[in-house]
Design brief:
By secondary structure, the protein is mainly α. Helix content is about 65%, strand content about 0%. The chain is built from two helices and no strands. The chain has helices spanning about 25-45, 50-85. Helix 1 (about 25-45) runs antiparallel to helix 2 (about 50-85). It starts with about 20 loop residues before the first helix and ends with a helix.
C-alpha cells in the first residue's frame, strides 16, 4: 500500500518544545509595562517626572528584546549542535 508518513520507532525525531521566555526577560517586560503606566499617570497629573519613567520603559524594553533574542540564539545553537551529533 502507500506510505502513511509514519516513521518506525527507531527513527523517531525529537519533539520540539515551544520556546520558553527566560525569567529575566519576563521580569524586564513587567518593569516596562509598569514604567509605561507610571509615565502615563505622571503626565496626566502634570508632572515632568514622567520623562524618567519613559526612559526606564525604553531601557527595560531593550533589555527584554536582548534576553529573548539571546535565548532564541542559544536554543538554535543547541538544536544545531544536537543535529550534528546525531
Amino acid at each position: 500500500m502507500g506510505d502513511t508518513g509514519r516513521r518506525s520507532s527507531s527513527e523517531q525525531c525529537p519533539r520540539q518544545e515551544p520556546p520558553v521566555m527566560p525569567r529575566i526577560a519576563l521580569y524586564t517586560l513587567v518593569v516596562c509595562v509598569l514604567a509605561v503606566a507610571a509615565a502615563v499617570v505622571s503626565f496626566v497629573q502634570g508632572s515632568w517626572l514622567g520623562i524618567v519613567w519613559v526612559l526606564l520603559a525604553g531601557l527595560s524594553s531593550n533589555m527584554t528584546w536582548y534576553y529573548v533574542r539571546r535565548a532564541r540564539m542559544e536554543a538554535a545553537a543547541r538544536d544545531t549542535s544536537a543535529s550534528v551529533t546525531n
